[in-house]
Each structure stands twice: as C-alpha cells, then as structure tokens.
Automatic annotation (TrEMBL):
InterPro entries: Ferritin-like, Ferritin-like_SF, tRNA-Hydrxlase_MiaE. GO terms for biological process: tRNA modification. This is tRNA isopentenyl-2-thiomethyl-A-37 hydroxylase MiaE (Synthesis of 2-methylthio-cis-ribozeatin). NCBIfam families: tRNAmsioHdxaseMiaE (NF047790). It comes from the Bacteria. Coiled coil: none annotated. One of its GO terms (molecular function) is tRNA 2-(methylsulfanyl)-N(6)-isopentenyladenosine(37) hydroxylase activity.
Amino acid sequence: MEQLLQPIRQFLRCETPHQWIDEAIKPENLHLLLIDHLVCELKAAQSAMLLIRRYAVDEASGDALLAWLKPYEDFTYRKEGDWRALADHARLTKAMLPKRDAPYSSELIDKMVLLIKEELHHFYQVLEIMHELDIPYDNISSSRYARGMLRHVRTHEPATLVDKLICGAYIEARSCERFAALAPYVDERLAKFYISLLRSEARHFEDYLTLAQQFGGAVNNSEINERVKFFGEVEAQLISSPDSEFRFHSGCPVRAVASES
Ligand SMILES: [Fe+2]
Ligand SMILES: [Fe+2]
C-alpha cells in the first residue's frame, strides 16, 4: 500500500487535514460520505466518456458510450430503475472506432474505456454497501472541488485537453489519498473496500498524467510542468481552506477551523 501511495503523496501538494477525517468518520455523516462517493464514481466515468467522445471516437461509438452510461445516470439523477439491474450494464458491447483524422491515439480510447468500466463497477460496489448499511440513495449537492479546478481549464486546444487531463489526475490522486486516510478509522467492511479501490485509482491517476504529458509534450514540456504545478496549488487550496459543506472531496470543515482559532 505504501508503494502505491508514494507517487500520489509526491504529486499532491498537501495531505488531507485531520479535521476532515474527524468529520468524515462521524456516524451522522456516513450517508453523505457514501452518497457523494457514489456520485463521484459516476462523474469519473462521465468525464472520461466526454473526453473520448469529444476527442477520439466516431459518432456511432459516441452513441454507444452514451447508451452505456444512461442507466447509471437515470438512477442517479432521476432515481429511475432498480440498482441491481445496473449489473447488467457493466460492459460496453460495441467496439470503439476512432474518429477520422483524430490526432489522438488509440491509447486515449483504451485507457478511458477501461477507466469507465472500473468506475461503473465501483459505483455498483458503493450501492451494494449502501444497501447492506440500509442507507437509501438521495440526491445531494456536489462539492466545490471539481468545479473549483475545472474553472481554470484554458479554452483553446490542445490546452483544454491537457488541462482536463491534469485535473483528472488530481481528482484521482486525491480520491486515492482519502481512501487510504479513511481506511484505519472506518469499519472493517468499508476499510477493505477502500483499500481495494486504491490500486485502480492509483492507476487512473497515472494514466491521466501520462496522457497529459503525451499530448502536451508535443507542444511544450515545461508548459505541462507549469500547469501541473498550477493545478496542484489550486487543488491544495481547495483541500486545505475552510469549507462549509462536508463531501468526499470537501475542504477543511468550517466548524473545526472555527473551534481551533
Ligand atoms: Fe473509482
Ligand atoms: Fe478512478
């Protein structure tokens, strides 16, 4: 586990504050932690899907990707369908064909399709745990975290793609770091689950970072390093500054900040 975490800790510019862990392990926050985690898994799948639809695959492949995620979105946003039926939608049934003249490699498609499959599996696993713990699914607002990074994404190509990939790397790395930080404090079933997630989230982080370097490297290597540094600072700020809302990726709980000062 330490081996997996070492590159992640090196990449992130701050650790999860212990005040966040204290908040996360309160029994009254368990439903928020799990529901937000659930939605994060879907969002991870959606952003990977949007990337390959936008940059890499042809229209028919894009439609197949939309159809793949639709039952998960129906459940999450419209509370439609039985969660157990999602197990029948775990796989993508159509082969992905690249867009004509797409400058982006099949590596982007392969890595992102595998990532989507894994995130959807994690989504289902969170639902299983919620079912065991008798926690019903309900809509909750999303945290400021991803939004707070994505608003700095540049609006011209290939900078947009590079920035989105770097944000993806930070979100995956932080998730991984938080699962590891929570594992010692939660019950055995949840701890086992969090540790089982570390391996794939660590790989997702590396995949995003490699892709960013690959696509951006053609432009300018030092510019990529600059952007990694920039988003690292934005990310650390979102994690360590006071946040009034508790979520999986929220900042330092306001109550804790207030009581310490
Ligand atoms: Fe995941
Ligand atoms: Fe992931």
